[in-house]
Amino acid sequence: MNNIKDVLNKFIKGEDRKIPVIIAIGLIGILLLGLSGLNDGGSSKKAEKQSAVSDNSEYAKELEDKLCSVISSIDGVGKCKVMITLEATKESVYAVDSESRNDNSSNTSKEEYVFSDYGSSEEPVLIKEKYPKVQGVTVVCSGGDNSAVRQQIVNCVTALFDINANRVSVSKIK
What we know:
Layout: H1 2-13, H2 18-72, E1 80-86, E2 91-94, E3 96-102, E4 107-113, E5 115-118, E6 121-124, E7 126-130, E8 134-141, H3 147-161, E9 168-172
Parallel strand pairs: 8-9
Antiparallel strand pairs: 1-8, 2-7, 3-4, 5-6
C-alpha cells in the first residue's frame, strides 16, 4: 500500500518523469485497440445487412415491375400499382465436403465448406442461390372495383407466385 502512495506522490509532485509517459502511452494504446475493434466489427455487419436489404428490395422491385406490366395488359385493369412482400432474404447454398463414420457403438460425421482461390483470397464455393418466396401481393388499379377484373388479377397473381388467394389484395385506385 505504501508503494502505491509513494508512486502517486512522485507522480503528483512531478519528481519522476517516466511514470506519466508510460501511463499516457498505455492509455493511448488501450484507446486505439478499443476504437479499432468497434470500427471493424460494426462496419462489416452493417455492410452485410445493407447488402441483404438492398438485394431484397431490388428483387422485390423487379418482381413488382414485371407483375405490373402483366396485370396492366389484362382487359379492364387500367392504371396499376403493385406492392410485393417477401418471406425472407436470399439464401446462398455453398459446397460442403462431408465425411461420416459408422462404428458399432457410435456414428460420427464431419462437414467442412469447400473453398476456392480467387486471386489473393479464398472464398467458399457457391452452388446456388435461393431467392425468397413471395408472401403477399397488393394490387391497386383503376378496374379494382369490378369483380370480374379483380378475379382475373387474383388468378394471375396466384398462378405466377404459387400463393393462396387470401394473400392477394386488389383495390380500386383513387
